[in-house]
User: Fold this.
Amino acid sequence: MDWTQAFWVKSDNMNELLENLFANRIQYHVPMSRFTASRVGGPAEALIVVRNVEELSDAIQKVWELEIPYALIGGGSNVLVSDDGVDGLVIINRAKEVRFDLSPDKPSVWAESGANFGVISRQAASHGLSGLEWGVGIPGTVGGAVVGNAGAHGGDVSESLVLAEILHRDGTKETWSPEKLRYRYRSSLLKRHPGKSIVLSATFGLTWSTLGAVQEQVDEFIHYRQKTQPPGASMGSMFKNPVGDYAGRLIEAAGLKGTVVGDAMISDLHGNFFVNRGNASAMDIHRLIELARTKVEEMFGVHLELEIEYIGNWNKVLDLGR
Ligand SMILES: Cc1cc2nc3c(=O)[nH]c(=O)nc-3n(C[C@H](O)[C@H](O)[C@H](O)COP(=O)(O)OP(=O)(O)OC[C@H]3O[C@@H](n4cnc5c(N)ncnc54)[C@H](O)[C@@H]3O)c2cc1C
Assistant:
């Protein structure tokens, strides 16, 4: 047992322990609404922002070793954080280094897991490199995209990823191929076994095209998003599309577009987007989720599976075992 573990056992005082581990980089009771795309979420008991892969590895290994409760957040664009906040340490991943390999035969891009996926897609386009056009407009990080197999416009991470560098709870690092990540629709082995491993960085394969051709495709995808998806604070698609159908279509057919609870609304433009109109609570959004699920199940016999993830202290209000 090292000094930190001894300290943990003796004092049972998380704040003191965290200060000893991370010195003055820790902040307390920070509203998570500052770090989520939906702009909702109560306070993180403690929070640290990591700015490179070394800081990320160091922070996660400490919380794993000492069994401190934690949540790792990238762009916060696929999570619904409870109004009651998050216990333990929230690690905000801002490890953002990006390097393009512009070799003539096998171009690629390597990025730290906190880099913004949509930005990388645009950067690739600006080099005349094709392969990530589908990712333009995805507001999350590379880590979130690799774990959740993010995708759009017929493309997804499983098709573009070459390798991901993975750190495991036992301290080992491995380089995983897409096959090893066992991708499914918006899911991966890491997503199905949370808390065991994290993504440190990833490399995506690209091919040379012309600036004009790639830019045209990117512009078309951006235009399509602007036409079909609401602006403002949301989590993107709330539910996965059921086989052979669309969650948005079912929610619309259930007559729920435009439904409001508190300051949250099922978008009147896209039934699968739930928008924070300014002062929504996580509970408002949760109530809309329950309403949509119940109505769609009653009317069409289809169970909508969440694409987003509940984070934080939901136990008081939810039976998550459902
Ligand atoms: C307006 C809007 C449009 C969107 N459009 C799309 C779309 O077209 N296609 C799509 O697929 N999604 C879309 N999304 C959803 C979201 O952007 C993606 O799912 C994104 O990949 C999530 O990344 P993130 O960094 O925000 O993850 P977060 O929300 O921060 O985290 C999600 C999960 O991933 C885990 N995680 C994050 N980083 C790591 C890491 N480095 N290692 C291990 N686990 C990690 C977290 O712990 C959490 O469990 C959209 C969201 C919004 C708000």
Residues 1-11 have pLDDT under 50 and may be disordered. Residues 37, 72-79, 93, 113, 138-141, 143-145, 147-148, 150-152, 190, 198-199, 234-236, 309 surround flavin-adenine dinucleotide (CB under 6 Å). The CA atoms of residues 108 and 205 lie 5 Å apart.
